[in-house]
Amino acid sequence: MGFRCGIVGLPNVGKSTLFNALTETAAAQAANYPFCTIEPNVGNVAVPDPRLDQLAAIAGSAKIIETQLGFVDIAGLVRGASKGEGLGNQFLGNIREVDAIVHVLRCFENGDVTHVEGKVDPIADAETVETELMLSDLESLEKRVPAAQKKAMQGDKEAKVAASVLGQALDLLREGKPARLTKPKDDDEARVFAQAQLLTSKPVLYVCNVDEGDAASGNALSARVFEKAKAEGAEAVVVSAAIEAEIATMPPEDRGEFLAELGLQETGLARVITAGYKLLHLLTFFTVGPKEARAWTVEAGAKAPQAAGAIHSDFEKGFIRAETIAFADYVALKGEAGARDAGKLRSEGKDYVVHDGDVMLFRFNV
Prior knowledge:
The structure is a single chain. The model is unreliable at 25-38 and 84-89 (pLDDT under 50). Helix 1 (15-23) runs parallel beside helix 7, helix 3 (122-153) runs antiparallel to helix 4 and helix 4 crosses helix 5 (187-195). The chain has helices at 15-23, 50-59, 122-153, 157-174, 187-195, 220-232, 241-248, 252-261, 268-280, 304-311, 313-317, 327-332, 336-341, and strands at residues 3-8, 41-46, 63-65, 68-73, 100-106, 204-209, 235-239, 282-288, 292-299, 319-325, 346-348, 359-364. A six-stranded mixed beta sheet has the order 2-4-1-5-6-7, sandwiched between helices. By secondary structure, the protein is an alpha/beta fold.
């Protein structure tokens, strides 16, 4: 799995339409009224990577396996969701385990599509949803922190760690700030903070849903969202859910021409993936052979044993070395044999930091 995204937003902003399009399914019912999504929808999509096709062609791989991106789509949130208004609150638990929050914002005017707040204002919409997420986290921590503090006073070491880092998060939330601003002081606090699965601790990707005519360059509404994202250290992309829905029904060979006619170089899914990888500091490495060419995802800075562990835990436990070829060398030298003959196949040890595009073969002993 590359990473999992929880899709949030107000009703009627295009969440379910976008989910359907990105996963090329009709799993999420899309309709012009609030709460049409009444159960969380989960879908996985293959992460497109042209490099994988090149590697497979050179190696004569029988099968291509892309890394996967998961989407969890929940009911539209409304003001008061954290207190039971609407249907969104009962599904917030479904996005506690995701890696990032994909926040869909309406950046188009259309009198035929009702807006739950009565006006189109993506910044206000973002603040409404963020407030509900913060209130949900606040309610959770107001129960957990006092309990941790009580145990900490009795000498419980783990409780001391929790009381410290979660207490800091609670103070931020009480000030109306998201938990992601918490700064754990050491690895133990970072671990406990991550285990808390606070909604507002997740990095955020804003998706500006625009009309077809604004899909290439955005509009004044999306520009405001990009400014907000920059100020927060978040990411933002422009997507037209209507275009993505149309692309989803097309044969793959027709999509390039359709996008070109609209002045687009890639699909909205590709932009979401690129922004998501940047937000989460992820990179891709490959394993290639006659049976399959496969893409794997690890965090930037991962060392060779961790990359081996992405394939199987036994590979990491018994790691010996990684035979590594840079993608450009693999392609230029027509595969492993050519790279080996040219001295471009390297034997790397436990301290090797994986680079994006590395073609790797792991040697291990368990």
